[in-house]
Amino acid sequence: MQALASNNLTIEKEELSSHTLPDFTSEAYKDAYSRINAVVIEGEQEAYSNFLDLAKLIPEHADELVRLGKMEKKHMNGFCACGRNLAVKPDMPFAKTFFSKLHNNFIDAFNAGNTTTCLLIQCILIESFAISAYHVYIRVADPFAKRITEGVVQDEYLHLNYGQEWLKANLDSVKKDLMKANKENLPLIKSMLDEVSNDAEVLHMDKEELMEEFMIAYQDSLLEIGLDNREIARMALAAVI
Ligand code: PL3
Ligand code: FE2
Ligand code: FE2
Fold first, then answer.
1. pLDDT for 231 beyond 60
2. Atom of ligand 1 nearest to the CA of 126
3. What is the residue with the minimal CA distance to atom 3 of ligand 1?
4. 130 CB under 6 A from ligand 1?
5. Rounded distance between C-alpha atoms, residue 221 and residue 164, angstroms
6. Could you tell me the residue ranges of all domains in the chain?
7. Which fold has domain 24-239?
8. What is the pLDDT of residue 18?
9. What pLDDT, in 10s, does the model give residues 144-154?
10. Nearest alpha-carbon partner for 119 in 71, 58, 173
């Protein structure tokens, strides 16, 4: 009787925690992973090409930006290995469509020479998205992917930091553009998160936790750039209205 009671208690505790490990070999896991893994691979590939474009927009920092871009290629290879390790084939067509609106906005801004928008999209929005997703994933990943993702997330802070420092140094002249770019692109991040939240749930990644981690990275970076609380609140609200 005693043993039964304590067993029940253990089960209850496990159910309450969202951090129990999923069955990495189940068909449901592999199916969800085929899309999430593809999204991450495509995201790293996009990030690589965005940093090369940024190197053209900010030639005085070209060496640094190319170096940051090369890290993204390494990340991409790491996540390809994670998929292979679980015998999952990433659904790349899904991921291409997933990123298409954000991708087009980046390319339009690049063609218009709009450095502020490009930095907001890549260094603040995409990197905050990656940092939040990777932090949550590390808690529920298989041991191989966990080790890879722990290495990757450290680099993502360097990428966020680059954009932060540039925007901080130029804040007076770019604030209006920054607000406008945010209004157009933050809602895309929110709908991208909505689009993968069911698959993320299968990986035991909680949607609210993802949003919370995103908001922490995003708001911290806006604060670091030098925006005040009211400006940050106004920017964050773009995600919900
Ligand atoms: C920039 O360095 C990388 C950009 C990647 C963006 C990925 C966003 C991923 C959102 C999907 C949520 C699940 C994540 C699972 C992690 C393997
Ligand atoms: Fe990356
Ligand atoms: Fe990055």
1. yes
2. 4
3. 44
4. yes
5. 6
6. 24-239
7. Ferritin (1.20.1260)
8. 54
9. 999 999 999 99
10. 58
